[in-house]
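Wed. Picked up where I left off yesterday with Endonuclease VII domain-containing protein. The coffee machine is broken again, so keeping this brief.
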Amino acid sequence: MSGLPSGSDKKCPQCERLLPVTDFHRNRRRADGLAYYCKTCAAARSEASRRQRGIGALKKSPVPAGLKWCPDCGEIKPLEDFPRTRKASGRHSYCKPCHNARGKATAQRLYGGTREYHLRRRYGIGEKEFRELLAEQGGVCAVCGDPDPEHVDHDHRTGWVRGILCFNCNGGLGQFRDSPARLARAITYLRGTTWQRVLIHPGVFQMCSPTRGRPPSRRS
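Structure written out below (C-alpha cells, as returned):
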C-alpha cells in the first residue's frame, strides 16, 4: 500500500494502541492511505453518533433477497421503496420517506427551506431575488397580468431567468417550446387568417378561407 508510514503499524488516536495497518480501513483521501481511527474505534464512534441522532442500532442480521434495511427508520422494506441511484447497489441507503425527510432537513439547514433550495438549484436565484423581480413586474404575471404569479420562467437554452409567470402562462410557453414562430402561427390561427375546416352539414366539412368568407350557417 503506497503512502504508508515506515513499518506495518499505526497508532489509533482514540484507543492509543499501536496496531497493524490491517486494523484500519482504507482511505485514499489521507496521506497514508488509511482511516484516522482503527476499525474498532471507528465503529464505536459511528454507533455513538447514530444514537446521539436518535437512530436505531445498526442491524446485523442478514436481509432476504429483494428487501433492504433502512438505517433511519430501522425497517426492512422492498427494494422498490428505496430511490434509484447510479451506485453499484442501484438503490439509495434510505427508504423514500427517510430519503425525502433527509433532503428537506438538509435544505432547511443550508438554505432555510425547500423553496429557497429549489430556486437556487434550478434558477440560480433566491426568494429575495424572486420578490424583487416580481415587484418590478407590478406583482402580476408578466404575460397575462394575473396577480400573485409563483412560477419562474427561464430560457431553456441559456438558463437565464426571464420573469415570473402564472401557472398557465408558464406552461403555455413550455407547450409552444419557447418558439416565437409557433406562437406567431398560433396568433394567426386565432385571428382566423388561415384556412379552417368548417362544418356545413352533419358529417360534412368544407375548407374555407376568411378572405372568401364562410358558408352560411345551416342552423335554423
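Quick read: Residues 96-111 form the longest helix (16 residues).
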